[in-house]
Amino acid sequence: MNSKNIANKVLLVVCFLFLLSIGLKYFYKGKLIVEMFYAVMEAALVGGVADWFAITAIFKKPLGFPWHTALIPRHRERMIGAIRSFIDQDLLNVESIKKRVDHTCFVTLVIGFIENKRSQFLLRSWLEKSYQEVIANLDFQEIVGYLDIFVRKEIRNINTISQLKSLVRWLLNERKVQVFTTYIVIEVINQLEKIEIKEKICKHIEELAQGTNRSSLERVFIWLGEQTNSVNISDAVETFYGEIVTMLQEIKNPEHILHTWIDEKLTNLVEQPEMNIAWFEQIESWKVTLANDVKLNEVAMQMVDDFSATKDPKLYTQLIDWVCSQIHEYWEFFKGNNEIQEWLEVRIKQATYQFIEKEHYIIGEMVQRVLSEFTDDKLNDFVEDKAGDDFQWIRINGSVVGGIVGLVVFLFLHYFYNDYIVPMIQGW
Questions:
Q1: Looking at the structure, do residues 231 and 257 belong to the same domain, yes or no?
Q2: Which DSSP string do the residues of 173-212 spell out, in sequence order?
Q3: What pTM, to 2 d.p., does this model score?
């Protein structure tokens, strides 16, 4: 049972009791208790009816009474403006919203949302549903064109010498030059140990022995064969092979003079000004040629066409798995990096503050627009729904307080006024 029904029933009971008091007063004239009951019910009825009229006048015209009634429909624009002002300037003003935002950690909310298994499932489902549409709507020709321009521009902007010197400096500082040199030597030794290499050396020596026009290296090799008293080509090959392997094994020693020589040359390279490097112009020329001649369009478009022509569903599944793995990898990195989280939190709050300051007026406009669309009856229902119970209890209290006041007045008139107040007045 709502408060309005209770208030109506209370007023009905008071009215009935007032009629009963009239009957009792008629049949029991002069009875003090009856007179007191009549006075109490009379005052209770007056208080209840007065408050019923006052509360009803807020929403409509009670009994058709036109003066200063139906206050909400009559002053609806002013009331709507007051509600908007209260919400816009007091309840949800800019500063109060900023304080609430300031106590909110958006990054924590985002992490909690994305870590939810349902959210991850929705993200995966969205990727599976939308990737074909996204790919179909992409203009790969335009994308490849932008990529081609970007790569060519970046190649031209690369400071080749500076990058090379930085690489050499890092190799020297980390002592990677010896490691790299030793690795090359080991690979050469491994290649020399192959049978086909020996056969090629043997064949070359045979051609060399029969030739007349020999290079300096060839003359050294013939001289080495003569000094070792090589009897035949096979012995010469074995001797030459052994000397080469022995020399390479010695180079593997970190203390070998070759390592020192390489370090000195690289150190001199790092310390030289860029313009003093002899092959600076050749490197720059090679870089410009590469930037002009590189053909990314053809290769990239061929890859796109091959991918688009592929109908294997496993390929798309693998692509989505790869995208999800990349997202997961970056997500784990983000969760473990407090610095990035703090940076993002600051940026989100700054953007939120700017949005609040710029668009705060929307709150008031929304409230005013919604309330303005209400009819008079709907606006009455809206107000009564929010404060109707309190209004009806005012009616109930009117009857109760009226009855109490009636009782006090009756007791005053019968026990104080006639016995004390009247003689005092007459004595003046």
A1: yes
A2: HTTHHHHHHHHHHHHHHHHHTSHHHHHHHHHHHHHHHH-S
A3: 0.46
